[in-house]
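Tf2-1-like SH3-like domain-containing protein
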Amino acid sequence: MLRAVLKKNLKMWEECLPHVEFAYNRAVHSTTKVSPFQIVYGFNPRAPIDLLPLPTSERVHHDAKERADFILKLHKTTKDNIEKMNERYREAGNKGRKKINLEPGNLVWLHLRKDRFPDLRKSKLMPRADGPFKIIEKINDNAYKLELPPEFWVSPTFNIADLKPYLGEEDELESRTTPLQEGEDDEDISPMFTRDTPSVVMHGPLTRARARQLNQQERNMKAMGTSKGEEESKGGVQVKLEAQFISE
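Structure:
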């Protein structure tokens, strides 16, 4: 509005500011259906263009009780209009949204937003999510409190939009820089494990990469244990056959 009033006279903005403020407070708001002036004072002040007298319904009420009732009614109407507009916004925002029900104790992935985790999102190649983290409190259907490591230095309360349920050890979040970018995958490549590979003791928070590494170690240890058991079983049979052959 100020730009429309000034046009090319940019140096006069300070002189035009009171007039713009008056016009804004006198204009009808799209949500409340009345002007800010009318909400506070119960009527709209006259403007230079108002040469005709005000209608009777908009004149100032001289009776105190009648004026008080009028203000209360006006505030109630304004509140109803705001609630209707908020409901429209809520319906538009929930359109097509899938409801996710999480409970305390569930594990979730956390989306690392740049505004809350600037140190963890310095580069496009850095992970966009971390976890899984445990839910310790459900504030409401849209807000949850997580058990975060102390080095995060952020509030542990997050919106449902930043959370994704952890589905198990096979669950992995997309880690590409962009879904449409072929190649350039920055996922961790699982290392090759042998029997002589020592077990790595993890310290710090359980991140996505560490969870994958632990799961891979567990699977390799189970596989090595099975193969070792088969070899021992075969070795025992061979020893028995050799002993029987010698005795004969």
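The first strand starts at residue 107 and ends at 111.
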